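Q: Please design a sequence for this.
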């Protein structure tokens, strides 16, 4: 029998994915190990290789649609085999996850209401001019989606989308078989609701009454809905988890960077092509300070505190639609030039979204640097699974007092944001003092 291809877990935190691009079409021959799709995960867009050989009988998931982990995305088998039969057998055997593309023949529960016209009509609460739905609809007035499948016939994907967008299934007419609500019906309802506050054309409109100082009416622009990427969904989930579960404590310390600046200039002059940055010095100093203070290189769990044996420093990299944290492994055992080259390579591949999952997992501490944007000081959110994150600000020339006289120094402020369950303010202060000592006397980094 034909084989149903399921959406695999490509990263350790992946719960759903998007088929960014199919590399095959129906009727194509596929070899085992051949790349058949590009899948957008919570961290990167990754190539997916087929585990089976055969002919592509059906592409169940469509490009651009969110698909749950373990859902059917394609069917591969011998020429002439029945893809629908394979999908039906798969669902019956595993209670399969609903695919992004609806399979109307699968498990349509018997509705209690009449079968409406096949054309998808949406009757949101903001559009009273639309014909009212039939009075025989189930009497569930609450806007929350119906969880049990016996009241309103709907596909699992439609139920999930309705739940995520706070839509009542009772207010939506299904266009599927026997009045079943499918994904297209939910999408239509979402679009109708978002378009209601603005003009139907979506064009800019002239407001009524409000005028500027010259008496001209203000022009109102339409809202622009932006679909969340898998990365942004994961960032939102993990940052909410962090702020909800982790009691943060933050300490800031100013660090004089004159000697680092001089050493950086000397290295650049002595080594042709050297591109060592201030952040490279920070990462190396952080790694050495973590070796001195192993508690900061740890994490809290319900079973107790773990102090990680290795120092793996994550370096936050801003990408087009979010943030990724590639990892410099064994950073305390590497030279400044090795760290510099690795960070440049990881950063370039992060922006091109070609990092492998293992290159974005396993960090024991994170460095986030916004100095290149002119930010002098900020606080960051601790990544779950770590104990602390260092927020690095910009270098700026400041007048400070030395020996009773004013002098100009290059000052950089670093803020340690940490899990208060793991260690207290004094532990943070000792770590920051070690970091300050290493950066203000950087020759110690090369000892």
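A: Design:
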């Amino acid at each position: 029998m034909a084989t149903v291809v399921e959406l695999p877990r490509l990263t350790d935190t992946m719960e759903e994915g998007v088929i960014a691009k199919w590399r095959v079409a129906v009727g194509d021959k596929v070899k085992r190990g051949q790349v058949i799709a590009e899948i957008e995960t919570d961290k990167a867009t990754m190539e997916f290789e087929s585990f089976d050989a055969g002919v592509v009988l059906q592409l169940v998931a469509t490009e651009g649609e969110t698909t749950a982990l373990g859902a059917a995305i394609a069917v591969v088998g011998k020429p002439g085999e029945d893809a629908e039969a394979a999908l039906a057998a798969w669902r019956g055997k595993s209670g399969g996850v609903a695919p992004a593309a609806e399979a109307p023949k699968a498990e349509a529960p018997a509705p209690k209401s009449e079968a409406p016209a096949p054309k998808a009509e949406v009757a949101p609460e903001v559009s009273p001019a639309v014909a009212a739905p039939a009075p025989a609809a189930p009497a569930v007035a609450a806007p929350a989606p119906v969880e049990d499948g016996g009241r309103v016939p709907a596909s699992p994907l439609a139920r999930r989308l309705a739940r995520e967008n706070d839509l009542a299934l009772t207010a939506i007419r299904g266009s599927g078989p026997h009045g079943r609500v499918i994904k297209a019906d939910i999408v239509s309802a979402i679009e109708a609701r978002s378009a209601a506050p603005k003009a139907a054309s979506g064009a800019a409109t002239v407001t009524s009454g409000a005028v500027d100082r010259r008496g001209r009416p203000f022009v109102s622009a339409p809202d622009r809905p932006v679909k969340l990427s898998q990365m942004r969904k994961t960032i939102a989930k993990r940052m909410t988890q962090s702020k909800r579960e982790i009691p943060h404590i933050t300490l800031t310390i100013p660090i004089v960077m004159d000697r680092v600046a001089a050493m950086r200039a000397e290295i650049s002059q002595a080594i042709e092509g050297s591109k060592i940055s201030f952040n490279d010095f920070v990462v190396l100093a952080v790694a050495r300070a973590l070796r001195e203070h192993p508690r900061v290189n740890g994490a809290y769990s319900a079973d107790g505190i773990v102090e990680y044996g290795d120092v793996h420093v994550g370096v936050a990299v801003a990408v087009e639609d979010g943030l990724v944290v590639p990892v410099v492994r064994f950073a305390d055992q590497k030279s400044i030039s090795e760290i510099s080259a690795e960070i440049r390579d990881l950063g370039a591949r992060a922006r091109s979204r070609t990092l492998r999952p293992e290159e974005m997992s396993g960090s024991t501490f994170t460095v986030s640097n916004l100095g290149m944007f002119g930010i002098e000081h900020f606080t960051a959110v601790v990544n779950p699974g770590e104990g602390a994150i260092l927020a690095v600000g910009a270098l700026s020339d400041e007048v400070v007092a030395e020996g009773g006289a004013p002098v100009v120094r290059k000052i950089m402020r670093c803020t340690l944001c940490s899990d208060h369950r793991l260690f207290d303010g004094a532990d943070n202060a000792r770590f920051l003092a070690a970091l300050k000592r290493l950066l203000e006397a950087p020759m110690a980094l090369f000892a």
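Q: Thanks. Anything notable?
A: Helices lie at 83-94, 156-164, 183-195, 230-245, 258-270, 278-292, 336-351, 425-440. The chain has eight helices and 20 strands.
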